[in-house]
Task: structure prediction
Amino acid sequence: MRSARQTICWAVGILLGLAVPAGADWIASAYLGASSTGAADLTLERPAGGVPTRSANVAFDSKSFQSPPYYGYRIAWTPARQGRFGVEGELIHLKVYARAASLTPPVERFSISHGLNLLLGNLLWRQPLWRRVRLTTRAGAGVAVPHGESRVGGLEHEQYEVSSAAVQLAAGPEVALARHAHAFIEYKVTTAAPAVSVAGGTIKGRYTSQHLATGLGVEW
Result:
């Protein structure tokens, strides 16, 4: 017999097939790149520990090219072939490592090292510039899903968790390589303010990052 999961997937596939006009475009993209996160204040809050501890103007490293690297992928839908307007789902995996010299005891180490993962829904606009080139702009909002790693008062802690809202603005050119493939380069700005769980409490901060990404997309 067909499992419940198979039945759900089969039903969703039929519904998508019925809902999407035959003339629509799907666009799948993947990219690599690098990010830079501006200095921020980090606040350690521990319900049992009294007054919050603030680390001011903490500097961050991105380690974008160290495993796991900076990456992202997304899938978009436009309502007409070569349509200018579209909607999109995107995952951005960036990292932040607080420099130890910037931290105030009892915080000894803090990073979001398996990703300040941003899950976003985007609106995009694709404006033709020349025969094989168009400018794509996107604005998005969603949630941050950070994986924090920390040592506070000698106690280590790490986990994934769904946290704060996240937003992005991005723009860059696409160059057609073939009828159904293109390359792109893109500049992004994102911001999120997750509360990351640590031993006995949370560390809160706002992470505003600039990104430069390049990748490939396919359309069908």
